[in-house]
Amino acid sequence: ARFAQWLQRAFRASMISKRSGPRARHWLGILTILSPRHGHVLLCFQTGSRPRPAKSSMSMVEFTRKVPDLIIMRHSKSAYPLGVPDHDRPLSERGSRDVQAARQWFTQQAFPIDQAWVSSALRAQQTWAGIRPGIRETALPTFDESTVPELYEASVAQLLSLLTTATARTLLVIAHNPGLEQLINSVVGRDVHGWLSHIRAKFPTGAVCVIRHEDWATLAEGQAELVTYAVTRAS
After folding, report:
1. What order of strands is seen across the sheet that includes strand 39-47?
2. Which helix (H) or strand (E) holds 188?
3. CA 173, CA 75: separation in Å to the nearest integer?
């Protein structure tokens, strides 16, 4: 996000300097910047014959990477009503507050999510309903969301089997422990920030991590990098 803001400021300044007079020429430019971490960054910008404020000179900023991201989130804290089956347990009052904090966090992160898979369990569905507005603000136009019943109580093997069918560039999965925690511990082979030790101790409710890997079909033990970890909680 900081990189995008820096590029936007640079191009705004560039566009201002290219204008002359009250009516500027129609001008279109495309620039591709290579980044070893993020793949390539494609920026398209356009000015028309009418004068526009500098903030409008960039019409689109699109980030594309050569490798996909998997965003894993454990549902927010749930309640334990007497006599209610596990699948149908709702969020607790604290969980409902935490979801609002999670929504704000996702809005700030501005992930270009193009697909979301959500467990059919009520607590996962309520978590998704709470954060969805924040994600939709920055999701790609091709964004798609699905309820995936197989995510409920899925083992590591079942999760990996599901993920091999993914086609998204950035996929969000909202599901449950112990499967999620075990999946992270299994596939992460690079952790420059040292977050994995915290996840091994506990991947709590509301926790989110981003895993970067080479290809969905080859996602396996030790093949991914842990690039983000956060626990979204209300203050």
Report:
1. 27-35, 39-47, 60-64
2. strand 188-190
3. 10
Q: How far apart are CA 77 and CA 99, in angstroms?
A: 9
Q: Which amino acid is at 50?
A: R
Question: How many angstroms separate the most distant Cα atoms in the chain?
Answer: 74
Residues 10-44 pLDDT 10s: 545 444 443 334 333 333 333 333 333 333 333 33
Q: Which residues pair with 221 in a beta bridge?
A: none
Residues 172-226 have pLDDT tens digits of 999 999 999 999 999 999 999 999 999 999 999 999 999 999 899 888 999 999 9
- What does the block give as tokens for 221? 């033990």
Provide the β-strand partners of residue 33.
Answer: 41
SS3 173: strand
Rounded distance, CA 72 to CA 98, Å? Answer: 16
Give 125's Cβ-side CA count (13 Å radius): 12
Region 58-70: what's the mean pLDDT? 51
